[in-house]
Design goal:
This protein is mainly α. The chain has one domain. It has 2 helices and no strands. The chain is extended, with a radius of gyration of 15 Å. The relative contact order is 0.08.
Length: 63
């Protein structure tokens, strides 16, 4: 993946909730192995994402 794109994404991320903060001293939220959805479609409802979320859930349940 393009490193410039990753740098840009890092600067866009905002905290939605203080519960995402994993290091209180540095006020940092670290996410290990995140799933990243890239789309050119407009997402207007959670139902638009449901098939993707269900697939992710199945993959994560696999041993």
């Amino acid at each position: 993946m393009n490193k410039n794109l990753l740098k840009e994404c890092k600067s866009i991320v905002v905290f939605i909730s203080p519960f995402f903060i994993s290091d209180q001293d540095r006020m940092v939220a670290t996410i290990d192995d995140p799933y990243i959805l890239i789309t050119d479609k407009k997402i207007t409802a959670i139902a638009d994402l449901l098939p993707v979320l269900e697939k992710m859930h199945q993959v994560n349940k696999s041993p």
